[in-house]
Amino acid sequence: MTHPSLGRRSFMLGLAGLSGTAGLGMPGFAHAATPARISEAIHLGLYMPLYAAMNGGFFEKHGLTPDLKTAGGIAQPVPALLSNAADFAVTGTGMSINATVEGAQMVNVAKIAGMISVWVVAKPGITFNGPEDFAGKTVATLKFPSNTYTTPFYAMKQAGMDPEADVTWLQLPFGAQLQAVVDGRADFATVFEWDASIGATQFDLEVVYSLGEALGPVVFSSSFVTADFLEQNPEAVQAYCNAIADAQRALHEDEQLFIDVAAKEFPQIDPEVIAAARPRFFGEVPLVPRNPTISAQEWRTLVDHEAGAGTLREDLPYEQMVDNSFAEKAAQEFGLS
């Protein structure tokens, strides 16, 4: 199988939509004078800390007025930063590396998603113990370069398999993976949330494995800025990291906050699905990070994954790509480990 060109990294993944900013019964704060223009790749549940910071009033609490726009693809927040249409990007961390390789120095300042959020779904009674169990099977994914394809591909390579020869890939459009398992065209589907919980609650399927937990903690999605913005606006970057850290703390302490924010941001998702999904956001390797800091090991896991999956243009060092000082200060302020 020949991979499509890396330019398809900007493939429209769908589910775009503008985030609301209404509060959820949180205390009011004075109107802030400093704008924070945020460009998210697409509207996804794995950006939950961002949505909690907006809907919970945490940006205002820390002196920022957030303005969130959905860019329409995981590469698109980069041109938003470069054209000065946005200050902060929220997208796949690998996009900061590829942009920097092309000459635009990006700096990661906060972790948004701490696990690669891909789960394996199958019919009831199917046993799945690891990537080796994909051998000889048909796997329904979204189209490359979706992580529903690249993550199992990478996991199989790590397990010593040949994913191009050992597995039949069924690359499908959004919404079709679960049905492929139900009707027998695929043995497994590899999916994001909310699809994992939709499969469990509406398709009589089972979530049999977490590829993300198996791979371990990782800076799967991050907030990054240009080096120029960081140099010129350190106070805004600190306030942004404070808001994200505050929201992450609140999400881990208050179960209802996740439910309320998810219902507000994703009104098309059944409440039963949201309730079923919540434990997968706060598992042993939490998708919602406990704090926004980015460790060297989390960075290395991300780089190895992206390089192995064929979506990274070059391996750039952690020291060049991450400024952890703002996130560390925020984590210390809120007592987050």
Automatic annotation (TrEMBL):
Keyword Signal set for record: yes
Keyword Transcription: no
UniProtKB keywords: Signal
Subcellular location: Periplasm
Transmembrane segments: none
GO cellular component assignments: periplasmic space
N-terminal signal peptide: 1-32
Gene3D superfamilies: Periplasmic binding protein-like II
Pfam families xref list: NMT1
Domain SsuA/THI5-like: 48-253
Protein family according to the UniProt entry: Belongs to the bacterial solute-binding protein SsuA/TauA family.
Official protein name in the record: ABC transporter substrate-binding protein
Species: Salipiger pallidus
